[in-house]
Design a protein that fits this description.
Number of strands: 2
Shape: globular
Distance between the termini: 31 Å
Oligomer: single chain
Radius of gyration: 23 Å
Largest sheet: 2 strands, antiparallel
């Protein structure tokens, strides 16, 4: 494990400092009426965070034989066992990279509420900081703090600059998240209290800790206690992802939030739920995850079909994208429920791919909505000749959304299907129906808006097609989607060892082999003496596929 300069905490601090500067007098409306200087500053801060992340990751894998594992520990409330424990491994790295790319894309995109000013960019930077904190934290209490704080920028932006029902949508979003988060907080306190007795015996007293690795190593929870505590975590992550039927907040939030906020929320917040299940629930509650796996797989497959079927009848563009997200993230839940290395590696890849595709669709459709003055699909038609650049990029992102080969979505869904078939063949077959339905509603919506009969325009015809920075952002996102679809191996090699480590207490093969003995925990080549790292050896995806196909 590598600890050095610059520390991981800088990834959290830099966006916060940048956000504070955004509210300074130098960006006041009389000095920066169009907020161009503030936008340039925010771009620089977000880009600096991205560069720093890549630099830290590169330093963590200076030796090709070493698995990425960079950590930082700083005391916060040591008397209560609460420390700022941060970890950057293959799992957190891909999600942190997604966070930086999405934030940079939203800031670089020209569209923002006209009345927002510097506050818009400050909230985006705060959102970036809190999401990065959630992906890096391995102290349960610190993770919970970031898990809650990431809601504030979304709620504030939606309440100030959202649609006509913005307050109702913000209240609904808040209630859902609070109801989901309180059980997780109680479960965190319960796990810490039960584990403190075992830790106290080893140290000669009562020792409290919220550190994930210490708690999972002690393994003080009985199967019944794992069920009680695991349900609290699962409810919180199910709301955040969301998993059907806990998705009620999603459509209204997507409809009423400003374009950039909706793009940020759709691309990142749900991924925290997916990440949380993999990072925390498998190491802490292996017995519960084995028991809940079939139900999660069922919920994921049902979510794929349900989201696709509801999306087919939507006339509002934002609502279509909302239910489309439910459908695509259902694949991630299916893979997590099966609990095989290959399926969960595919789930992580699919989550990252969905983040890139979704932020692109929200931004480009936001431009179309701004130009046409409506979100009603029935009011669109014949736009390909009027906005050819937007039509081209919408075509690219639409075929990526339907998981066409050579796009990143295809790789993720293919790995999930292959990895899930043996453990849950019926639910995997049902999810395949959702793939067909997804292609129907996505391509139908695209053909209708771009090549359908031209209709009377109710918006501002003077708003031009995409240009300048918007084209650069869309082209960069399209290039990333195609690159991951054509050359996925390096990303898979980054994810696979971290996934193997998270599943160290699960039977090899997941649901396909539930009676197998638990696999031994592999030690890290980087630092075998450090018990917190516990990183597995590097494993390419071909070997993972071979392991999934062999009954153990």
């Amino acid at each position: 494990m590598i600890t050095g300069f610059p520390p991981l905490s800088f990834l959290i601090l830099i966006p916060v400092i940048g956000a504070v500067v955004c509210y300074g007098p130098w960006f006041a409306r009389e000095r920066d009426a169009q907020a161009r200087l503030c936008r340039a500053w925010s771009l620089a801060v977000s880009a600096m965070t991205l560069v720093l992340l890549l630099a830290i990751a590169k330093a963590g894998v200076s030796d090709p034989r070493v698995v990425l594992s960079v950590s930082e520990t700083r005391p916060w409330l040591p008397s209560l066992g609460i420390n700022l424990n941060l970890l950057l491994d293959g799992l957190s790295f891909v999600f942190c990279l997604l966070t930086c790319v999405v934030t940079l894309a939203v800031i670089a995109w020209s569209s923002r509420p006209a009345e927002a000013g510097p506050s818009w960019y400050g909230l985006l930077l705060v959102g970036q900081s809190t999401v990065l904190g959630a992906f890096l934290a391995t102290d349960l209490f610190v993770f919970y703090c970031f898990f809650e704080l990431m809601l504030l920028p979304v709620l504030v932006a939606m309440a100030l600059w959202g649609g006509p029902r913005r307050l109702q949508a913000a209240l609904k979003f808040l209630l859902y998240t609070i109801v989901g988060s309180v059980p997780m907080l109680l479960s965190i306190l319960y796990v810490t209290w039960v584990s403190s007795e075992a830790l106290g015996h080893s140290s000669g007293g009562t020792k409290f800790t919220f550190d994930l690795f210490s708690l999972s190593t002690v393994n003080a929870l009985s199967p019944t206690q794992q069920i009680a505590a695991g349900l609290g975590f699962l409810v919180a992550f199910a709301v955040k992802t969301p998993i059907v039927p806990l998705h009620g907040w999603l459509p209204e939030t997507y409809r009423e939030a400003p374009h950039g906020t909706a793009a940020f929320t759709a691309a990142l917040l749900g991924k925290v739920g997916v990440y949380g299940i993999i990072r925390f629930m498998f190491p802490l509650f292996p017995d519960f995850m084995l028991l809940a796996g079939p139900y999660l797989a069922a919920a994921g497959a049902i979510g794929v079909v349900y989201g696709a079927m509801v999306a087919m009848v939507q006339r509002d563009v934002r609502s279509l994208l909302a239910y489309s997200s439910i459908s695509h993230l259902g694949f991630c839940i299916l893979g997590i429920g099966v609990a095989s290395d290959l399926a969960i590696t595919g789930a992580v890849f699919q989550a990252v791919s969905h983040g890139l595709v979704t932020v692109a669709l929200f931004l480009v459709f936001g431009k179309v909505i701004e130009r046409e003055g409506t979100r009603d699909l029935d009011s669109f038609g014949g736009l390909a000749q009027q906005i050819p650049v937007s039509a081209f990029f919408l075509m690219v992102f639409s075929i990526a959304a339907v998981a066409l080969p050579l796009t990143s979505s295809f790789v993720g869904e293919f790995l999930i299907i292959i990895g899930s078939w043996k453990g849950a063949p019926g639910w995997t077959a049902l999810a395949l129906v959702g793939v067909v339905l997804g292609a129907v509603y996505t391509l139908t919506a695209y053909l209708k808006t771009m090549f359908g009969p031209e209709r009377e325009r109710s918006g501002a015809a003077s708003i031009p097609d995409m240009r300048g920075g918007e084209v650069v952002v869309a082209a960069a996102l399209a290039a990333a989607i195609v690159f991951l679809g054509v050359f996925p191996q390096s990303t898979l090699d980054t994810i696979a060892p971290a996934v193997e480590q998270q599943l160290a207490k699960m039977p090899e093969g997941g649901l396909a082999n539930p009676r197998a003995q638990m696999r031994p925990r592999a030690s890290s080549a980087a630092d075998a003496a450090d018990t917190q790292s516990s990183e597995g050896l590097v494993q390419n995806i071909a070997l993972a596929g071979k392991q999934e196909g062999t009954a153990r």
